[in-house]
Amino acid sequence: MRSYIPVLTTFVVTLVSAHEYDQSTQIPLDYVKYPYQAVYYPGDNDVTADSVFSGITTFAKLPWVQCLGKDRDAAFDIAFIGAPFDTGTSYRPGARFGPAGIRAGSRRLTLYGGYNVPLQVNPFLSGLKIVDCGDIPVTPYDNKYAIKQIEEGHKELLHRPAYSPLGNSTLTGKPLTPISLDGKNHPRIVTLGGDHTIVLPLLRSIYSAYGPISVIHFDSHLDTWKPTVFGGAPSEQAAINHGTYFYWASQEGLIKNGTEGIIKKIRETVGDLPVYLSIDIDSIDPAFAPATGTPETGGWSTRELRTILRGLDGLFIVSADIVEVAPAYDTNAELTTMAAADVLFEVISVMAKTPLGKVEN
User: Fold this and answer.
1) Residue-wise pLDDT tens digits, 320-357
2) What's the CA gap between 333 and 322, in Å, rounded?
3) Which of 181, 105, 186, 93 is nearest to 143 (CA)?
């Protein structure tokens, strides 16, 4: 019986090899076997079928650059940075895990190449250098120090020279000049929160380059409470939280006030001024994004918010954030983290289409 085993094994292997060979020879000319493979690093033409779920989880599988570490001199045009802070929240904590959750929810963004059909742009192949800088080191024990860490970390990235020059206007062909007050071509920073308190140090950083800024704010709450009303302000530090940060931003002269509105009124209010975009995930109805610290029913659907964001095409969005994503409250299907990633996909698509420069009169 043993003498027949090698013969049988050889026969089986021969059949398998012949079967595979026959398949490959019958593939039609110009047939693409896997038309929807993902690009591991967008733009390098290195196609790998398993790229969306393997390797280090960065936003949309972008290159990981240690911008606040060994790569302090690295230049970029758009950088994602995490701010894992949630000790300013008033109800459900957990947004410190937001940056990691959003990155996980973004893994499939380049599964089909990353082309944004409504905006007719692929931000990953637009010629801009887009990277993931990891997270700002944030202490969970001292809010005052943590807020300082976030401001300094953001400012370190913001004041780095942009990788790509502004170039010329696509409409007039004339050279573009920076819209910043200091006359420099700054990169754009997209911050992954974190509870909404982080916007105060982020606006302090933005002020250092652009002065008082117009803010487009999507939220289920105004977040302009006086500290004595929201939280009672038992201490100087407790007065700064995710319901009062806009109050303090206004007191410090960091923002320009505007009227409420959707798309048309936003554009009329902001015009051609530099604008900061802050998005609280709780502006989306909890049916679509349940994982947040203070959920409110009656919010937008994901389709509605993405449509509004596409309507901002052409605005000078200098930087942006998304906050209050708390993955511990998400469904097993990762609805909230995917929604957050998709919202940011719309944001960077708008950014990719509009350089931060103007033609001088």
Assistant:
1) 999 999 999 999 889 999 999 999 999 999 999 999 99
2) 20
3) 93
pLDDT, position 134: 96
Q: What is the mean pLDDT of residues 300-310?
A: 92
Sign of the Cα pseudo-torsion (308, 352, 270, 175, in order) = negative
Q: Cα–Cα distance between 155 and 112 in angstroms, integer?
A: 34
Model-wide pTM > 0.90: no
Report DSSP state, residue 198. G
Say if residue 310 is exposed, middle or buried (CB neighbours under 10 Å; 0-12, 13-18, 19+): middle
DSSP 8-state assignment for residue 55: S
Distances (CA, A) of 2 to 9, 13, 226: 12, 18, 87
3-state DSSP assignment of residue 255:
strand
Q: Which of 117, 116, 128, 120 is CA-nearest to residue 62? A: 128
**What is the rounded CA–CA span in Å between residue 293 and residue 286?**
11
Contact 88, 242 (CB under 8 A): yes
End-to-end CA distance of the chain: 93
Tokens describing residue 70: 């060994």
Q: Determine the Cα–Cα distance for residues 348 and 77; give it in Å rounded to an integer.
A: 11
Listed residue (261, 276, 342, 341) closest to 315, CA to CA: 276
In 3D, which of 278, 166, 165, 284 has the Cα closest to residue 216?
278
Cα–Cα distance between 287 and 53 in angstroms, integer? Answer: 26
Instruction: Give per-residue pLDDT as tens, 237-296.
Output: 888 888 788 788 888 989 875 333 467 788 888 888 999 999 999 999 999 999 998 888
Which residue's entry shows tokens 């009169």? 361
Q: Could you give the count of Cα atoms lying within 13 Å of 121 in the half-sphere of its Cβ?
A: 19
Q: Tell me: the pLDDT tens digits for 9-63?
A: 444 444 444 444 444 455 445 544 444 444 444 544 555 545 677 788 999 999 9
List beta partners, residue 131. 79
- Is residue 258 helix, strand or coil? coil
